[in-house]
Amino acid sequence: MKIPKSGLAKKAGGGKARGYLDGQMLIASPSMSDDRFAKTLVYICAHSPEGAMGIIVNQPASNIKFPDLLVQLNVVPDGEAIQVSPRHDEVMVMKGGPVETGRGFVLHSSDFFIENSTLPIDDGVCLTATIDILKAIATGEGPACAILALGYAGWAPGQLEAEIQANGWLHCAADSELIFGDPQQKYERAMRKLGIAPGMLSSVAGHA
């Protein structure tokens, strides 16, 4: 599994055509065979012939709080009051995927943008992976909505398509609640977008 770095760079510069699954939400099927992705939602940030890269948005990182990370990364001094955007009381920290788990990725609303660092994805959603966005959030100048993901999910060329064909994944259009809302409700909400009630999950097969 790898991150399609060249594809991301081209897209950030505006020269890459939109990938088929860019900005879509992958929903782990009940038949998903990989335990790491059981009942996960993955927001696809880049999808091209070079592979795919996405962020898991419904697996909170246990015992890790955003303010504590800011102190550990020396973004703010220990004990200093941390202010976040008035419209976002707390930035949730997620387990973004099994690749590069020591690296942070911020999915956020498009009201915040850093030239040459922020990747516009779709429908007002962007991705930034530099410490500058953490500094902005800490001082109350960051985006209205944001989640910090540790690690990401990556697929080699053709791998994601094969997993979808094998009924490992369903997919639907993403929305703000699926990305930034209550992580405990995201999976069922996504399934309902496909017309699938929670009681039907065990019998679902096929793909969207």
Topology:
Blueprint (H helix, E strand, L loop, with lengths): L4 H8 L11 E5 L12 E8 L2 E6 L9 H7 L19 E4 L3 E11 L8 E5 L2 E4 L2 H8 L7 E10 L3 H7 L3 E5 L2 H5 L2 H11 L15
Parallel strand pairs: 4-8
Antiparallel strand pairs: 1-2, 1-9, 2-3, 3-8, 5-7, 5-8, 6-7
Spell out the key features of this protein.
globular; alpha+beta; disordered N terminus; VC0467-like; nine-stranded mixed β-sheet; single chain; 6 helices; 208 residues
Overview of the structural elements:
By secondary structure, the chain is an alpha+beta fold. The chain has a single domain (5-203), classed as VC0467-like (3-Layer(aba) Sandwich), CATH 3.40.1740.10. It contains six helices and nine strands; from the N terminus they run H-E-E-E-H-E-E-E-E-H-E-H-E-H-H. It has helices at 5-12, 66-72, 131-138, 159-165, 176-180, 183-193; strands at 24-28, 41-48, 51-56, 92-95, 99-109, 118-122, 125-128, 146-155, 169-173. Strands 1, 2, 3, 4, 5, 6, 7, 8 and 9 form a nine-stranded mixed beta sheet that branches. It starts with a helix and ends in a 15-residue tail after the last helix.
The string of secondary-structure elements, in order, is HEEEHEEEEHEHEHH
Decide which structural class fits the backbone.
Answer: alpha+beta
Amount of beta strand: 25-35%
Q: Provide the residue-averaged pLDDT.
A: 83
What is the CATH topology assignment?
A: VC0467-like
